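ok so I'm stuck.
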Amino acid sequence: MLDAPTTNTGLVDAARDPTDDASWQKLYATYRAPILRHCAQSGLTPSESEEIVQEVLAKLARRLSNAAFPWSSATLRGWLSQITNHLIFDVHRLNRRHAFSPDALAIIQQWLPPTLAPDGDTKAREQLEAHLWSVCLARVAHAVRPRQWQIFECYALQGNPAAEVARRFNTSGLNVRLIRHRMIARIRKEWSILPASPLPEPAE
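replied:
not stuck anymore, here's the structure
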């Protein structure tokens, strides 16, 4: 869910009027920063994040102009969150910058339970897992100190020996192993709140 303030439903109703530019600008200002922040926390670049903001808010404008919909603040934020996450997952799916090596995918698979993709479609499940894992790890990387993530990545994802990683980062082998343990716990926690099945395209 987007970390956004509670929306004034009166403002949402006013923004339905395409001539009420002031109300729309207030609504835009309310959600632009939370969407940007959510995208950045998911590993997207500023330009990727800005593109998603524009697309999400364009969808909102179209939705508000449609027939009456019983918006509540929770419903609106939930709808915007679903739209935003759907687009974030697409960026991870389509951009090779977010791709893992086969060795890293095999390692991550040991940490996390499978998704709920169709049982008979192994390729679809693997593709879904890969881009959901990418989002999951990006959100954890954003939440921790860069040096801790670099140690974890070097040891746990790239498979370098703990002693070598310890020398490279001027720390102890024990600390390298502790960082791995803590990071995996955080990754599992983040995974538990991600959708475990493909997101449908939300209705506009």
